[in-house]
Write a structure and sequence with these properties.
By secondary structure, this protein is an alpha+beta fold. Helices cover 52% and strands 18% of the residues. Strands 3-4-5-6 form a four-stranded antiparallel beta sheet. A two-stranded antiparallel sheet has the order 1-2. Bound molecules: zinc ion.
Length: 244
């Protein structure tokens, strides 16, 4: 993955300030996957998107991710570490052809598209999210040689579809059980990589703007000149400013 320059990252951050979390996640995904047509990103399978965001996180801020959460039983503050590189690798690596799963059971033959963010968002807005998701992502369903609709799928077949989707796109439901060091109870931690990464990007952007302010004041350089410096040189000049 190409590491995006500071100026482009600041641009993504600035655009994201006015957005809701869904829009911010999309901007981050666009930063992670400049090779994919922006219009197609919302239909990228959810687990694949997670892998893309973990890869972006690793490229921008490194492998180690500190996660904090409160124990659900006793409220103790817990901290644990995740490896962004490991997660990106274990979740990703699917070709476009594999984004459709096929379930064959009894006399049923069903093809189902792995849901993307656009599907989940639309389904969540409808009266019956599960039915809406089935309807949106069903590619074809045949029973005894006759085509049927999503509403005609029996519950066991629906369950098999859910299992097949989970197996094909495991990152879609990334949850970990963290044991509390105080009381021993496990707390289910669902890491939202998009909001985690946004928080980091936000802190980074504010630091960079401060650097620009300090260096522009000290040397009279323009913003684009300062952003074109490597982080190492920026740091070095800042140290020189602080010394005088
Ligand atoms: Zn506890």
């Amino acid at each position: 993955m190409a590491i995006t320059g500071a100026a482009e990252l600041l641009g993504a951050w600035e655009a994201g300030l006015a957005e809701a979390p869904v829009g911010r996640a999309l901007l981050l995904h666009r930063t992670a996957r400049p090779d994919v047509d922006a219009g197609r990103l919302p239909s990228v399978p959810v687990g694949e998107r997670e892998a893309d965001l973990f890869a972006l996180r690793r490229a921008l801020f490194g492998e180690r991710m500190q996660v904090r959460l409160a124990c659900r039983a006793c409220g103790a503050d817990m901290e644990f570490e995740l490896d962004a590189g490991e997660l990106a690798g274990s979740l990703g690596g699917r070709s476009a052809a594999e984004s459709v799963v096929r379930v064959q059971q009894d006399r049923w033959d069903v093809e189902f598209r792995l849901p993307g963010v656009a599907d989940l968002t639309a389904a969540a807005r409808s009266r019956d999210p599960r039915e809406a998701l089935l309807d949106r992502c069903l590619v074809s369903a045949v029973h005894d040689g006759t085509a049927v609709t999503a509403g005609e799928l029996p519950v066991p077949v629906q369950r098999r579809i859910a299992e097949a989707v989970e197996a094909a796109d495991p990152g879609a439901d990334l949850a970990l059980n963290v044991a509390c060091p105080e009381c021993g109870q496990a707390t289910r931690a669902e890491l939202d990589i998009a909001s985690y990464l946004w928080t980091e990007l936000d802190a980074w952007a504010r630091d960079v703007l401060l650097d620009v302010h300090l260096l522009a004041t000290a040397y009279g350089w323009s913003e684009s000149e300062i952003l074109a410096l490597s982080p190492l040189r920026r740091r070095y000049y800042l140290e020189l400013c602080a010394d005088v």
